[in-house]
From TrEMBL:
It comes from Zobellia amurskyensis. GO terms for cellular component: cytoplasm. Residues 23-128 form the Impact N-terminal domain. InterPro entries: Impact, Impact_N, Impact_N_sf, Ribosomal_Su5_D2-typ_SF. This is YigZ family protein. Belongs to the IMPACT family. GO terms for biological process: regulation of translational initiation. Pfam families: Impact_N. It comes from the Bacteria.
């Protein structure tokens, strides 16, 4: 990601489950916002409990903003017939910090690899279409240390630049943690460096 693109797309909340049917097989598609791999394990376990008759719960996820990590899992389906088609939909919707899972209940008719690929792709697509996609801003945090006497000057800059205060300790020595949009970070840092008696890191 370059300095100018400091936004990314993700989903606001878990999608409702959708059902896609193909030759009596049922494909239940889901999309979840995720922050780490531990969450993913828990969600997949929950889906397996929710669909005890599902033969496979296949999924793909992508996380990260600058450095993208992803994984695709076929859960026993033929190689690359489930996880990768699901991941392809994550890419085509250009979302990150997202898990898309599809639980398949076998309907008695084999679909073949081509049939599986298109069914998993379709269920993943419907799950993402059914999700609220939001754009988020990448932020950088700074810690400001200053004496109480500098409070007015510091607060004036924060108000003017509409900065977000994450936490504050207001005593004789004050400490503020602020969040700044990534592309404005250097400019904001320079402003505070220019104020006598204010330390920023």
């Amino acid at each position: 990601m370059d300095e100018l693109t400091d936004t990314y797309k993700t989903i606001a909340k878990p999608s409702e489950d959708i059902l896609f049917k193909e030759k009596k097989s049922k494909f239940f598609g889901y999309a979840f916002p995720v922050k780490n791999e531990d969450e993913i394990k828990t969600i997949i376990e929950t889906l397996k409990k929710k669909h005890p008759s599902a033969n496979h719960v296949c999924y793909a996820w992508q996380m990260g903003i600058d450095q993208l990590n992803y994984r695709a899992n076929d859960d026993g389906e033929p190689n690359n017939s489930a996880g990768m088609p699901i991941y392809g939909q994550i890419q085509s919707f250009e979302v990150t910090n997202v898990l898309v899972a599809v639980a398949r209940v076998f309907g008695g008719t084999k679909l073949g690899v081509g049939g599986l690929i298109s069914a998993y792709k379709m269920a993943a697509k419907l799950a993402l279409e059914n999700s609220k996609i939001v754009e988020k801003i990448v932020q950088k945090q700074f810690k400001l240390n200053f004496e109480y006497a500098q409070m007015d000057v510091v607060m004036r800059v924060i108000k003017q630049k509409n900065l977000l205060i994450i936490s504050q300790k207001m005593e004789m020595d004050c400490e503020l943690i602020i969040a700044v949009r990534k592309r404005d970070a250097e400019q904001i840092k320079t402003l505070f460096v220019g104020i006598y008696g204010v330390e920023i890191n």
